[in-house]
Amino acid sequence: MKKGLSFREAHEIVGKMVFLCLEKGLSLDELSLEDYQRCSPVFEEDVFEAIDVARCVNDRKVPGGPAVEAVQKAIQSVQQRLNL
């Protein structure tokens, strides 16, 4: 959605990506930039950052989120409430 696509357009592109992965027997992180661009011209080099699992997790810094920073804050909060 960061590329200004509607949900419908994004859904169609994802369908193409899934088909391509199944056809080639690869996962998303194994596809080339050219493969991505065959499905849609909106893909640029930053696609590989967007599908990096560790980066996606660490970007979720909201309270209760999975980022290391958020988890550490949650632990500190619980420790304070338990007087540890």
TrEMBL record:
InterPro entries: Arg_succ_lyase_C, Argininosuccinate_lyase, L-Aspartase-like. Keywords: Amino-acid biosynthesis, Arginine biosynthesis, Lyase. One of its GO terms (biological process) is L-arginine biosynthetic process via ornithine. Signal peptide: none annotated. Residues 2-58 form the Argininosuccinate lyase C-terminal domain. It is an enzyme of class 4 (lyase). Pfam families: ASL_C2 (PF14698). GO terms for molecular function: argininosuccinate lyase activity. Its EC number is 4.3.2.1. One of its GO terms (cellular component) is cytosol. This is argininosuccinate lyase.
